[in-house]
Design brief:
Elements (H helix, E strand, L loop, with lengths): L2 H36 L2 H7 L4 H4 L22 E4 L10 E4 L8 H11 L5 E5 L3 H6 L7 H15 L2 E5 L13 E5 L15 E4 L9 H15 L14 E7 L2 H14 L7 E7 L5
Parallel strand pairs: 1-2, 3-4, 5-6, 5-7, 7-8
Helix pairs in contact: 7-8
Bound molecules: zinc ion.
């Protein structure tokens, strides 16, 4: 073998090793993140069959997790993707892909809710929702960045791009999806709460058809190859946790959530609570 061939052979071997290592590293990350989440107070409690409404008030930090005013009016609030890896600090209000899956009527509602709030709207790398909106393009991230930037411009807010170096976790370690109906539950800043996806669709007043779509999409990421996937089973389900402003909204969102994850059987479980918030 001449020197050049030998070198290219070596480089090929190195590349193969690199991808194997990367895959191996991700499995290690998933395993350690899963082990860590198994020790979470709420996850442990739910496994014993206790209800969210009985467990949550005993979780440290419960009283501080609920804002008196809308999170959109809290200092440091950000509008981001529902993705649990994206958590760039401060209270978070979220829709999948920063709203890339919305129809025109719901987009109008979102724009009015965000208008002039003077908050950062972030687009992020490797967005699953953007991929769903643009499955035809292998490099779909650009649509997410563009959408977030346009939303920021249209609503008079600031735009920021979040690459994977700024992610809270390098893997999808979400054990739960919070379906937020109050706009006052600051779950993403609550360190004792398990890693979570966040859907603020109901809180923002979007139509009921939208959270149905979003819950299905986000649960699909968690329960699929990009998330904890096969680690979820009937004993360790993915939790859809509804945070409602009253019992009427709770009943409605539980129903929407249950219908949305029906196909996942007992690997997904839907429960909720009426949040300690006032209108
Ligand atoms: Zn995303």
């Amino acid at each position: 073998m001449n020197t050049i061939n030998h070198m290219s052979h070596e480089i090929k071997n190195m590349n193969n090793m690199g991808s194997q290592h990367e895959h191996h590293d991700h499995e290690e990350l998933f395993n350690s993140a899963w082990a860590e989440s198994q020790e979470n107070f709420l996850v442990k409690g739910l496994k014993t069959g206790k209800r969210i409404e009985d467990l949550l008030p005993n979780l440290p930090g419960f009283n501080d997790a609920f804002s008196k005013v809308s999170l959109l009016d809290c200092p440091g609030c950000r509008f981001e993707c529902s993705d649990g890896r994206v958590k760039s600090g401060g209270p978070k209000v979220a829709l999948a892909g920063e709203g890339i899956l919305l129809d025109d009527a719901d987009r109008k509602i979102l724009i009015e809710a965000l208008r002039g709030k003077n908050l950062p709207i972030t687009g992020h790398e490797s967005c699953g929702a953007v991929k769903m909106a643009h499955p035809e393009d292998a490099n779909s991230d650009k649509y997410g960045y563009k959408g977030a930037e346009e939303l920021a411009a249209e609503t008079g807010n600031k735009y920021e791009a979040i690459d994977h170096g700024k992610f809270r976790s390098q893997v999808h370690d979400e054990r739960a999806l919070v379906v937020e109906g109050t706009l006052k539950f600051n779950c993403s800043d609550w360190t004792e709460f398990p890693p979570q996806f966040l859907s603020s669709a109901a809180a923002l007043g979007l139509s009921d058809a939208y959270p149905a779509k979003e819950v299905k999409a986000l649960a699909g990421i968690a329960l699929g190859d990009h998330g904890f996937g096969g680690r979820f089973d009937s004993n360790n389900p993915f939790y859809i946790i509804v945070s409602a402003k009253d019992s009427e909204q709770l009943g409605r969102l539980l129903e929407i959530g249950r219908a949305a994850v029906k196909d996942f059987g007992d690997r997904a479980k839907v429960d909720g609570f009426v949040a300690p918030v006032k209108e």
